[in-house]
Predict the 3D structure of the following.
Amino acid sequence: GFIAQELQTLVPEVVSDTEWSRGENNKMVSKPAEILGVFYSDLIPVLTKAIQEQQTQIETLRTENATLQAKVSELDALRAEVAEIKAMLLEKK
């Protein structure tokens, strides 16, 4: 599971820090909890959003990587051409 104290700094809305009990006249009364609790079901939308954001970052990085790989291939081809031209120039001397 998750550690409530760690979640409280990141996603405080999923951490329960109060306890409810019946007080006078059967009214619900809150008091600070001795032990923090986690509303795990409330984490689902938070985690889903985080996964979506990560997926967007992954797709962006894949696109950037493909672009960079294409540029590297282009540079390798140009480097080979330059080497070929140098060799031809040296032969003519």
